[in-house]
Amino acid sequence: MPKHTSxxxxxxxxxxxxxxxxxxxxxxxxxxxxxIPAKPHDEFERTTLAAxxxxxxxxxxxxxxxxxxxxxxxxxxxxxxxxGKVDPDESxxxxxxxxxxxxxxxxxxxxxxxGKTVYPVKKTTKVVYYWTxxxxxxxxxxxxxxxxxxxxxxxxxxxxxxxxxxxxxxDKAEKRFRTPADARVLYVRHxxxxxxxxxxxxxxxxxxxxxxxxxxxxxxxxxxxFRPQRIYSAQPERCQSTVAPLADELGLPVAxxxxxxxxxxxxxxxxxxxxxxxVIAQGGTSVVCAxxxxxPGLIAWLSAQGTLPIDGEIHAKKxxxxxxxxxxxxxxxxxxxxxxxxVR
Length: 344
Known about the structure:
This protein is an alpha/beta fold. The chain is built from eight helices and 15 strands.
């Protein structure tokens, strides 16, 4: 896939630093449908990947109670949003959670992917992915990276922010807060299994291969970042095995239901739709692990029933995750994460 033209290609960008990020930048935070590329490190030339969040606390049903965290960085003497660079062996989701913990001391529940900002820093292109992140615990202690945090209503936070780039991310977060998710489904396609052609037994018993087992392990920190409360799986062993490490980590049972599988979709679509609708109706955050035929079809159906049009191809790579947001039972947001494996 050809690389995007990036602002780092502009003349003089080698002299730009982090605090110059308003000078030459691009925003990719438009729309409630967000997709992370399969190889985000290769999307731009000389990419430096980072991730963070708009940290918030309060009650989204009453926006007057919502405050967001404004981070003061003594090294730059600026007010910004919590973020940091990707470490080896991390997904972008892992980076966001780790950096927030290291910089602020807070534990968070990630929510909607807002998109990414792109700007030149020296000879590289810095690409920062932002989620919304609800603070669930922890305590801030001043440190070398962040010496002060101010919790402010969004309007006041916008005024305090040093950079227009961060103000625009706040604007996008506020827009998402106005239609808060009352249910979120992490829709997972099972990890890679042994090839069907080389498996002589019952296809429902076909196990994960070596890469698939690694994918299932890496899904644990990715899915845990959204704090799921329940786990569902289609019947095939490869689906159940994909979410087994997560179930072990969280101490949750896996509810197996054949209606989440391909066979049910092809033979009893109404029943498959009803099973998924029941999950949405429970509210909170659920994981559903399914197969490659049902996922695109069911998401297309949810799109047609909801307020989020999805006109293009609906991808569902093995080991991928769709983070689907619902309000009043209708699909209002969708974020595609193609892999839980490290991005570098």
